[in-house]
Each structure stands twice: as C-alpha cells, then as structure tokens.
Predict the 3D structure of the following.
Amino acid sequence: MSGLFVFDAYGTLFDVHSAVSRHAADVGPQAERLSELWRTKQLEYTWVRTLVGRYADFQELTEESLDYAAARCGGLNAITRARLLAAYAELSPFPEVRGVLKGLRYRGIKTAILSNGTPNMLAKAVSSAGLEGLFDAILSVDPLKIYKTAPAAYELVGRQFGTKPDEVTFLSSNRWDIAGATAFGFASIWVNRMGLPDEYAELAPKAVVKSLEALLV
C-alpha cells in the first residue's frame, strides 16, 4: 500500500445516519426511512447537478434533500428540521476512526480527506469528531464546482501532494465512489460496513474490508 491514504468523509469516516438517530423520537415512526431517503437524494442531487452543469454546494443539497425526504415521510416541523441539520454538521465518527488514523500516522503514513462536503462542513465535522491534527490535508471539491465521480475531483489529490494516481490508496464506503476512484487509477479499498452486494464489476477495488480497523492488521 502507498504512503498516502485518502478517505472519503461521509459514510466512511462519519456516520451519515447518526443525525436522524439522535432525533428519531422527534422525527417519528418513519425516522429510518427518512434517513435513507435523505442520503439517497443527497447523492442523486450531486450527480444530476454535475451532469447538467448547475452546481449547488453540498450544504444546499443537504438541505434540499432533507426537505424532499421529509415531504415523503409526513413532514417535519421547523424545530426538528433545524435540529437535524445541526446534527448533520456534527455527525458521529465511526468508533474505530480516531484510533486508525492515529495508528496510520504513527507508521508514517500521510492521511487526507477528499469529499463532496464544503470546506466549512468538513472543518466542523472534523472538529466535532475530535479528529483535528490527524490529516495532512482536507480536500473539498467545492472550488471545482463539480462532484465525485468526475475525474477532476480525484485530481485534487495529485495537485495537493504531487502524487501519481497509483501512489494513492483511496478508501470509501460508497461503492460508486470506489468505482470512480478506481477508474481514475487510485488503489481503492471499499469499506463495506453493511455487507452490501458488489457492483461495477469492471471497476473492482483492490480490497474489501468491513471496517477501517483492517488497515492496521
């Protein structure tokens, strides 16, 4: 593996469903469905915006997708909506994240984030999760006004570190992101926490793991 590990943020380092789980009682019996729809539409909006060339930043799309999910699930009052968005700004990290990042850096491996999130969103997420000082760079696609899986998004890593694609180990829990990173030339590791079936067979990852803890084995 390379001396540079680049992580997707949402779903890989941070649990995107932790926002709703904190306020499930306020959301009501469709809390789980709302959370799934919120995430699905958030991603769909990034792909559509990229394809039609009408960029809106990730914070805006996060709000738009929540409103759509809420409309499908019986609605939300203004207070609960505000609480969910505040919780999304401070998502819970997966339990092993901090220890793994510290372990990698102890071994002399550089670490970075490459995410669709805005710089402000990522800074707040990293800070609230207690991960400050554990990354050599936090890279957002926002300056490009385009989202992953566009090749230009993955090019940000080489611009920052002067690396060739095959010198980068890229990790994501999102199989579509792994497909994009693999197509770009990264050595990709799919963090398949949910045991999901594989897809994009022609763009296979170098490895599949259930947790980031596998990086320290």
In short: The beta strands are 4-7, 110-115, 137-140, 169-172, 187-191, 207-209.
